[in-house]
Amino acid sequence: MIQARFFVFCLAVATLMMFAPDAYAQRRKSEVKLGYGQLSSFQLNNRAPYNTSSGAFCLSFSYYVSRSVQVGLGAGYERISDWASVFTVSPEVSVKYMDTRTTRVRVRLYGSVAYGISAVSDLHVAPGQVDESGAKPWGVQLTPIGVRIGRTWAGFCELGYGYKGLVHGGLAVRFPRYLPRKGTLKK
Predict the structure, then answer these.
(1) Closest Cα partner for 150 from 105, 95, 110?
(2) 82: in domain
(3) 182 located within any domain
């Protein structure tokens, strides 16, 4: 029952993330990332033969609080066929180290931290074994090095430890800030 509520909550958050770039109250830029990672903490902690993983599929939405700081919400899914499937939702903070915004090819170096909740669904429960399914406080991602190359559409690669994996990469799209013209909003 708790897993169903958690899934509905995550689905509602994902739906809101899809429509957030069109919100009229938006004043700064936002970004959506879709990525894939390998060697997650779940896979590394469950050694052979319990580490046959599908890889970590991740979707995240972030909002630029300033030019250097982003806050957001990430969601990831991984299926370890010999152990369990894990769905993680976690708020995250990202801070840039370097940004070449005035050059032709924009490169951004950053680091991020995320901590949230993982919903574990145990796939193999033998008679006499305990079912480990449920919400766990395992949704951690520490990323000391991240590289984003591009402006509106960009590719990214991150090195870190956690639910996204040791190596995580994908595509990102940044939505420009929306500043309404004077007189266009009704009072």
Answers:
(1) 105
(2) yes
(3) no
DSSP annotation of 65 reads S
Q: The domain containing residue 46 runs over which residues?
A: 2-175
Task: Give the number of domains in the chain.
Answer: 1
Residue pair 106/151 in contact (Cβ under 8 Å)? The answer is yes
**137 CB contacts (<8 Å, ≥6 apart)?**
117, 118
Residue 185 is assigned to a structural domain of this protein: no
CB 52 within 8 A of CB 21: no
Predicted pLDDT of residue 123: 82
The pTM of the full predicted model, rounded to 2 decimals, is 0.76
Give percent of the chain with pLDDT exceeding 70: 76
Banded model confidence at residue 51, pLDDT cuts 50, 70, 90:
low
pLDDT tens figures, 102-156: 898 999 999 999 999 999 888 877 777 777 788 888 889 999 999 999 989 999 9
For residue 173 the two structure tokens come to 């799209």
Q: Which of 164, 168, 111, 162 is nearest to 140 (CA)?
A: 162
CATH number at residue 90: 2.40.160.20
